[in-house]
Amino acid sequence: MPGPGNIEFSRRNLLIVGAASFVTPGAIAAPTAALAQTAAAPPALSKVALNINGKVSELELDTRTTLLDALREHLHLTGTKKGCDHGQCGACTVIVDGRRINSCLTLAVMHAGDKVTTIEGLGTPQNLHPMQSAFVKHDGYQCGYCTPGQICSAVAALDEIKAGIPSHVSADLSASPQATAAELRERMSGNICRCGAYSNIVDAITEVAGRQA
Amino acid sequence: MKFDTPATTNPIDQLKIIGKPTDRIDGPSKTAGTAPYAYERHDIVANPAHGYVVGSAIAKGRIASIDLTDAKAAAGVLAIVTAENAGKLAKGSLNTASLLGGPEIQHYHQAIAVVVAETFEQARSAAELIRVDYIRAEGAYDLAAAKNSAAKPATDEDPPDTAVGDFAGAFATAPVQFDATYTTPDQAHAMMEPHASMAAWDGDRLTVVTSNQMIAWGARDLATTLGLPRDRVRMISPFIGGGFGGKLFVRADVLLAALGARAAGRPVKVALTRPLIFNNTTHRPATIQRIRIGATRDGRITAIGHEGWSGDLPDGKPETAVNQTRLLYAGANRMTATRLAVLDLPEGNAMRAPGEASGMMALEIAVDEMAEKLGLDPIEFRILNDTQVDPEKPERKFSHRPLVECLRMGADRFGWSKRSAQPGRTRDGRWLTGIGAAAAFRNNVVQKSAARVRLDPRGVVTVETDMTDIGTGSYTIIAQTAAEMMGLPLNKVVVRLGDSTFPVSAGSGGQWGANSSTAGVYAACVKLREAVAQKLGFGSADVVFADGEVRSGNRSAPLAKAAGDSGIVAEDTIEFGDLDKKYQQSTFGAHFVEVGVDAATAEVRIRRMLAVCAAGRILNPKSARSQVIGAMTMGAGAALMEDLVIDERSGFFVNHDLAGYEVPVHADIPHQDVIFLDEVDPISSPMKAKGVGELGICGVGAAIANAIYNATGVRVRDYPITLDKLLDRMPAVG
């Protein structure tokens, strides 16, 4: 009977057992010594001046630091959220030079000179941005964790529509896209809300789009 | 306050503030990004080191050895904790598997080490240098294969078997019989905020800032795990980025933050990485469900049976998918059976509406199938078999059961009469369209809940309770409750939640939070009102609290005056008697869904959704509606896409991130409508409310399945209903 210590020596299992000797993400046998050497050395630091919400901060960062972690851990701008750290959820969405990006998928040192707008730069609890107010009015959030990313994404998405940038659901690529529910749903689909506030979020964005139109 | 007789008229019935669709009081802070979550509390824990968790690369077996040499030598590393050096650890009463594995490994990605370093980047880098040699053992990972070995679960809650009358005989002789088996897959909570904690020690006192739905359970189990007296642990969790049951219990993040902080001699914060969460934490277990229904030719159920199989680690719990079938429909002869197999997959546990969410996905397809077999409209079949009493104990009534009203109102509002009873007959361009319905059903649970209220000299009332707000709206409805009770506007109430130094509440789970926790605040406010009246020398019989004043006869005084210089504090607990035994308390609803199915590709798109809900008094229709649409959305995921795919050789969930484990996105969800029946349930609590947060997921998946059947004529009994299961049976493209 198979039990602890009892391994079948099929080729497949041997491969699995071999790989399992190096447990952690991405580690494989050959480069481990090199990795260890690199890891023992002090981290490569780089100075970078980040312009966040109109304020320039001089930071000296481990070059591996993402823009997301620079915001959250170094500048304590924790409104930008880490949901997956892999560009799969949209919670870390910020606006860089007018375009929305996932701040977890970019290194901080790549953004010297860029204008970064985070949720804190859109408004404050006492002086909310119209999109933030619309989210409150339409209850476009529940737990609140995806919310800053949804709001940054929504603000930039309306700008994209205004700029005439078509989407996957735009029927006519030469016509100006409109902020229809279908367009908003398509453009917002990179921002996951597990609480399921989508219906209300679209109502909130539609209201803001109506004001702008 | 003991609640053991139905509520009579009380100050909540004024409905000046309760029952209004008030914006959430925490809305500005959440939308502006200033609401602080666990990993962000630099204000409570200064300069924390970063912990990075390493998960096991095998599902079952032992660690032969761990080599930490290179990891320890890596830059910035302060400490590495494994089971070898963690000291003696116990297991919390609510955990099935150990939170720190080794040498024995119980499931894939069970935590086996935490690396603590100065920065996140250094901790992550050093974690890659840990070398582990494993000895793999054979495990069981396939529920279908393990089904025959499943046994009666040892549980003190739900009986594994129920039987009324003679099910076997009645089914065998029923003129119309239906017998089918359904499956639901393993599903993940996938809440947006990863499990995250900060931990700081002060001598033998531990403070953790974490993301946890149940503060008292969590503080207790963390103390147990660490071998500390309960009062040495303070747990703080004021904002929680979603839980859905996945944060009911302490998980590896909080334990390893505490152990890492002890080893490093400074505060540590730990967040589980997204790819670790799916196998490291809990999930909703897969089920196999067999449903048999026997009926007379005119559609009266004479026999109904529901059997459910699920799997879990040794000493784990079953998914109680059969429970609603004990209560939902009439029928003299009935049986249910729950069986549990041992599987070596990660720990199965509660996810939004455990039991009913999966059970209703199967039962409400079965009811649709049976109605078709009988030649009856599926709504009429449900109405025909409604019951106003517990079918197992006919002397026991439901406290209130307007299922029929929900079905009729929904059918009317949704345009059910336009539905073609013949499937596959309605076409809209390239889309086959269809309409489906299902009943919604979830039990209402009440839980003891305490609160403290303080009136200060400014006339502000502060409520403190360890209740949590996981997106449910607790802050707001608690403020509404206190404002209503004390005759104050909402902006004169401050609500502080999620701290183990506050009175113990019901917490957030099982859709008991809103009703129970506000009832606890109600009880504390009753005491505060008495204290205020006494302080002012008013007789308490006719005293009225309104507009910031206290009035009795022809006398009145500002509420703030009663506070004096030092304020008044009152604390109480709502405790529930046996009204939930005397009466069956449940929440009801009806789901209606329209889908389009691409005639060529079988792609399914949801076009419209409506839920009609009866859940007692709705304390805040705006946040309650959000609870329902959110649950409908999660139910849409369960119906159409969510599926933790198992590698049955290696025993883990393969699609362990948010790209592989698909949840609904904006493009998947149409506008959603919710109607609440005007209901009060004085048997439930002084608030006359019931739970609503889980009702919305119960039945909606089956409504989608039934709509797909109505559109295509293809019946899929294995969730999720992906296009590959439809494609080879689709009607010929005309």
Characterise the protein shown here:
The complex is a heterodimer of chains A (213) and B (734). With 213 residues, chain A is α+β, with helices and mostly antiparallel strands. Chain A has 2 domains: 41-122, Beta-grasp domain (Ubiquitin-like (UB roll)), CATH 3.10.20.30; 123-213, Orthogonal Bundle (DNA polymerase, domain 1), CATH 1.10.150. Chain A contains 8 helices and 5 strands, in the order H-H-E-E-H-E-E-E-H-H-H-H-H. Chain A has helices spanning 11-20, 32-40, 67-74, 119-122, 130-137, 147-162, 181-187, 198-212; strands spanning 45-52, 55-62, 93-96, 99-102, 115-117. A 5-stranded mixed beta sheet of chain A has the order 2-1-5-3-4, sandwiched between helices. In chain A, helix 5 crosses helix 8. Chain A is elongated and about 55 Å long. By secondary structure, chain B is α+β, with helices and mostly antiparallel strands. Chain B folds into 3 domains: 2-35 and 446-578, Aldehyde oxidase/xanthine dehydrogenase, molybdopterin binding domain (Aldehyde Oxidoreductase, domain 4), CATH 3.30.365; 45-138 and 189-280, Aldehyde oxidase/xanthine dehydrogenase, molybdopterin binding domain (Aldehyde Oxidoreductase, domain 4, 2-Layer Sandwich), CATH 3.30.365.10; 390-444 and 585-729, Aldehyde oxidase/xanthine dehydrogenase, molybdopterin binding domain (Aldehyde Oxidoreductase, domain 4), CATH 3.30.365.10. Chain B contains 18 helices and 32 strands. In chain B, the strands form 8 sheets. Chain B has a 7-stranded mixed beta sheet. Chain B has a 5-stranded mixed beta sheet with strand order 1-27-21-22-23. Chain B has a 5-stranded mixed beta sheet with strand order 8-16-15-14-9, with helices on both faces. In chain B, strand 21 (449-455) and strand 22 form a beta hairpin. In chain B, helix 9 (356-374) runs parallel beside helix 17, helix 12 runs parallel beside helix 13 (513-536) and helix 16 packs across helix 17 (700-712). In chain B, 63% of the residues are buried. The chains are: A alpha+beta (213), B alpha+beta (734).
